[in-house]
Amino acid sequence: MPENTTDAPQQWTPVHGDPYRSVPYRPERMPAEESLDQADRLRHRMDGRRTVRRFSTDPVPEQVLRDAIACAATAPSGAHQQPWTFVLVKDPEVRRRIREAAEHEEKISYDGRLGEEWLAALRPLGTDAVKSHMTDAPGLIVVFQQRYWLGEDGTKRKHYYVDESVGIAVGMLLSALHLSGLSALIHTPSPMRFLREVLDRPENEKAFAVIPVGYPAEDCEVPDLVRKSLDQVMVEI
Ligand SMILES: Cc1cc2nc3c(=O)[nH]c(=O)nc-3n(C[C@H](O)[C@H](O)[C@H](O)COP(=O)(O)O)c2cc1C
User: Fold this and answer.
1) Which residue CA neighbors atom 12 of ligand 1 most closely?
2) Domain assignment of residue 162, yes or no
3) Which of 16, 17, 19 is nearest to 8 (CA)?
4) CATH of the domain at 190
5) pLDDT in tens, 65-123
6) Distance 208 CA to ligand 1 centre (A)
7) Residue 29 falls inside a structural domain
């Protein structure tokens, strides 16, 4: 933990860097033409992202996963508390245990725990309790929220805007994976408590999502979804 370099009062929770000091920020300004071009390309590339549920077992370069996680960790966060942990699960035995526990919970959920309204919303997507992607996909990232800060001596401090911060970071992770040529699924088995036990995470961490990553299987198909148009999602005043 870096020490405060000013006489300012100690942060209530540890903040990395020295927020009491400012440094110049002068990113090179992009010419408007280039900006328009980049934005248009990015919009189309992002529109090509789809959630994949059938993965090839072909390996992916592990460094791409680390780089994508590093991108996600650049996300803004409430009071710069960076309340996230990304677990890159490589051990096949641990992955097998995650799948087994997830399928156990999902079977109970799909057998009725979710309730008819939720099940009806999922039905068109064709999802079920079988989670082969957890062991088929060559990469598996489990994201945890740090619900509060936990010091080594057991001290607890509040974290602010944890849901929002981790949601933004996961959005950036999915974007980074997609723009690096990989496909992913954001999977939220319910409940997810088993993940903290299987991955031996501390008590202040709560699982947020399981993200299998890889290449789509050769016969992969995705639901024929249509996204809302810009007019439907944006209001200009
Ligand atoms: C917070 C969140 C939770 C999700 N949980 C699941 C899940 O548990 N299982 C699943 O198959 N898909 C899950 N999805 C994926 C959505 O079903 C998918 O994003 C949506 O159908 C749109 O498809 P697209 O990602 O291809 O645009 C989740 C997505 C989000 C954002």
Assistant:
1) 187
2) yes
3) 19
4) 3.40.109.10
5) 999 999 999 999 999 999 999 999 999 999 999 999 999 988 898 888 888 898 888 88
6) 13
7) no
